[in-house]
Write a structure and sequence with these properties.
By secondary structure, the chain is α/β, with parallel strands linked by helices. It contains six helices and 14 strands.
Amino acid sequence: MNITVCLRPFRVAGPRLDAETLGDKLVVHNYGHGGSGWSLCWGSGQLAVKTALAGGEIDIAVIGCGALGLAAATLAQRAGARVTIYAKEWMPEVRSARATGIWSPDSRIALAGSVGPQFPAFWENMARASFRVHQRYLGFADAPVEWTDRYTLSDTAFSGPPADPIGFAHYASRVQDLTPPVEDMDRKSHPFAVPYARRTSLPMFNITAYGHVLLSDFLQAGGRIETVEFHTPADLTRLKQKVVINCTGYGARALWKDETIVPVRGQIAWLVPQPEVHYGVYYRGISTLSRRDGIVVQRTGTDESYGFNDANEQPDRADAIAAAATIAGLFPKA
């Protein structure tokens, strides 16, 4: 069993997408997406690129080579810019490569009650824009994006009507039309060793393949990547580009001394791939998803406090084994 740990960059006020001047540079920020980086990368990237190109510059720097950096760089290329990515690590060594991989555009995206009245519509625009682009990657040979069934299981009766399954839903009702509705299943119509189940279908990201496709497309379109580590914002003044898109994710906490970023620890146990298993399960605060590169098991907890403000990136093998054992108990032994 392989175990990876990722720190998700949560911001109470949601993603940072403003711009500031640093010396002779315009720095456009694009970070702080919590657990929604892959899901929202295209929508937030469109906003960042629009700001970056507004002044007429066509030579653009992107800091960071994760989901947000690759999406922003690709969008800038498509808009006619020359783009260089500067990053300490490339995909698949970046934190983005350790994400679960489910479409979850409102997972850890903001703290309800701490955003302005415009934020839900702003979030919806990002989510819809991202969804449209993700669907263009359906049907690729390595399945960077594909639809899978998702089951929520319970030992006790669900209270109330089926809820939207996306993340910790603050705003998901605004995009319910993008995915099939959640349906209750009777005990005879599912194989799990629990009495109650609900099912829907959601897009899933095979991140190994998706990251490879984005990286390859960027390089084939003439993009460049330089391996660089920045320690302070002043280091960016050495770049030749006048416009910089800052997609450093959790790294922005140290680079920009941004204490508004709160780490949310997420640990994944990686099990052997099983091509015949083509669905995901959520049970007792544990999320399991079958991807092309392995079955991922992650304890997510039942509310947003789980993993909050925990910057420990050391694997907890005992917890990973316990989580996998909980899910294994759902399947009757032959």
